[in-house]
Write a structure and sequence with these properties.
alpha+beta, about 80 residues, about 15% helix, 5-stranded antiparallel β-sheet, 1 helix, globular
Amino acid sequence: MRSHHEPLTWHPVRGDEQVRIVRWTCDCDPVFYELCQAGGRRFIRRTTRAQNNPSIHESNRYPVAEADALWAALLHGLAR
C-alpha cells in the first residue's frame, strides 16, 4: 500500500436510479468495487461486508474520462 493516495468522498447509495455496472473487482474480498454509470456520468460503488450486513457507498459522479482515471487510480492504490 502506498503512503500517498487521492481520497475519495463516499456517500450513501442512491436506490432510485437505473445503474449500469461497467467494471468491477472480485466480490470474494470483504470490500469490493464497481464502476457504475447512470445518466451519462460515472461513479465508483464500494461494498463492505461485515457480519452479513453489507454497507454500500458511492463516490461523486464524474464525466466518463475522469471516472475512468479514478477507477485506474483506485486499482493501483492511488485512490481510496
